Write the structure tokens for this entry.
Amino acid sequence: MKKLSGVFPALPTPFDAEGKVNAKALEALVKRNMLKGVDGFYVCGSTGESLLLSKEERKYVLDIVADTVGGAKPLICHIGCLSTADAVELARHAENKVAAVSSIPPIYFKYSYDEIKGYYYDLADSVGTGMILYNIPVLTGISFNDDNLADFFTDKRFVGLKHTSNDFFSMERARARFEEITIFNGYDELFIAGLSMGADGGIGSTYNIMPEKFVAMAGLMRKGEIQQARIIQSEANAVIKELVKIGIIPALKACLTLMGIDAGDARKPFGKVSQEQKEALVKNVLPLLEY
Ligand code: MN9
């Protein structure tokens, strides 16, 4: 398999007025991102509200994205679930549609490290595609870092790391030790920092509303033009700051709707974006999205 790299939007899951998956809006979003030059997609991750979807919905979302992309770009599907059996079921469904699967570690119960490792190895044993570890300690309480990464990346079935963490020291150590794996930067606001410490690209929610900026930053960083890239990162960060104030997923979906892609509300327990917040997005964010 060719090494994955570049700009991978983490797709949100649009919902219609009844709260059902909105296939048309999802197709439109995927197509628009492709026109803007993204390199692939991350499906049903945190941004896709995967943990709030049923397994059937998660399969449906991947099917829509796979049909829309038609093999033109690589897909990574997040298949993380509370139980190993559910994750295996989603991994098997994804297997022939994706370049790799990916999973957060098992959450809620305080599993031992051996149990967490066992979860990933059960998934790796169940499918032929590579596995991308999803490191997001702020949400899972579990860190993949220099102390434990060798437990995975000495096995060739583990092909990548999605690193949503400020710990760039661990990212660099992973880069130095495991040259062949793909490292994706996870925090959009730290995109060029991640690239400068050895990431091959990034996976991010806010790429969906400003794909040009992330594609441009990736190109500039490849050419070593850090000062130019920093100017664009700064523009992107002004947007991200506003979204984070509201809540990243509801705010992202509200922005998409304002931009003509009817993403609907985030699913409960997420709250709705208020009228005042929408007005703030129109005033403070939409003008910054232009490229
Ligand atoms: O996929 C995203 N993480 C989450 C990665 O949504 C939890 C990021 O793109 C963040 O949304 C973004 C804003 O903090 O960096």
Summary: The chain has one domain: 6-225. Residues 6-225 form a domain with the TIM Barrel fold (CATH 3.20.20.70). The chain has twelve helices and eight strands.
